[in-house]
Amino acid sequence: MGAQIVFMAALGLILGSFISVVAHRVPLGQSIVAPRSRCPSCGTQIAAYDNVPVFSYLALRGRCRRCSTRVPLTYPLLELGLAVAFVGALLAFEDDGAKIALAAAFAATLATITLTDLEHRIIPNKVLIVSAVVGTAIVVARLPDEIGERAIAAGAALLALLVVKLVQPSGMGLGDVKLAGVMGLYLGSAVAPALLIGFASGALFGLVLIARHGSAARKTKVPFGVFLAIGGIVALFAGDAIVDWYVDSFTPGPSVHPASTFSVHGICLDSRLVAGSHARLGAGPQAPPEGARWLPGG
Ligand SMILES: [Zn+2]
């Protein structure tokens, strides 16, 4: 397991480094394979030894070796974040290669659009198309039972955000609508909490902006894709648990659940509920315990 963790962490760092190139160049219509990266300030080609994910940033203290221009902290943070997500995927879906691959592809997608949305305020179609093709290929090849659920989730998420976009055109871009569809493909029913968390965190950020900058903040263009990405990464690891908890807690049905439905991924969500359902299971017409006597007059 230790070797696998190191492998996934290294893969996350390397892919994160590649993604920062993709996110910078794709919106500008540049090639992602050539030429080698250059410092945007002095134009010096960045040597391979200065391009090692995270480590080079630390060694150079976040500056260009030649001209000392600051390298945005976003890059090492994104590389580190992707490494953490990859290791998380390995730990969460241990024995399921298809689920690990799907989680890794999803995390890479979210990392890419986070950067493009922050840097250029767009979510490129190219990124969404590549992601949708990769996700569909993994699902069709390895998780054929889930094609239906994931297709419905993708369609529903796309439609939900399209409706929001039509009602409030200034709130988000079409890129966000299409991203929601891709999230449905990767998350299945867990796309519902992902969108809710996305809207909630986006609204919270908007309120903070208005509190700090007053009504001028209303004109600030908020990169909504970043908040969808936050919802997506939370739902990737906790989405199924949230959906199960919601279904168990709020859907009308038989009042007695088997205790196991409250235990999601081995975590007991609410021990009182479990205790309660045990008590109800044990209730019903029962003989009084041996030795108990009914006292006359109560
Ligand atoms: Zn430079």
In round numbers, the mean pLDDT is 85
Percent helix = 55-70%
Strand order of the largest sheet: 1-2
Describe the largest sheet.
2 strands, antiparallel
Number of helices: 10
Strand content: under 5%
Give the CA-CA distance, first to last residue. Answer: 63 Å
Unreliable spans are 256-298
Number of strands: 2
Q: Indicate the structural class.
A: mainly alpha
SSE order? HHHHHHHHHEEH
Bound molecules: zinc ion
Radius of gyration over C-alpha positions, nearest whole angstrom: 24 Å
The global form is: globular
Gist of the model:
With 298 residues, this protein is mainly α.
3D architecture notes:
The protein is mainly α and 298 residues long. It has a domain at 147-282. It has 10 helices and 2 strands; from the N terminus they run αααααααααββα. The chain has helices spanning 2-25, 55-59, 74-92, 97-120, 125-142, 147-167, 174-187, 191-213, 224-250, 271-282; strands at 263-264, 267-268. Strands 1-2 form a two-stranded antiparallel sheet. The protein is globular.
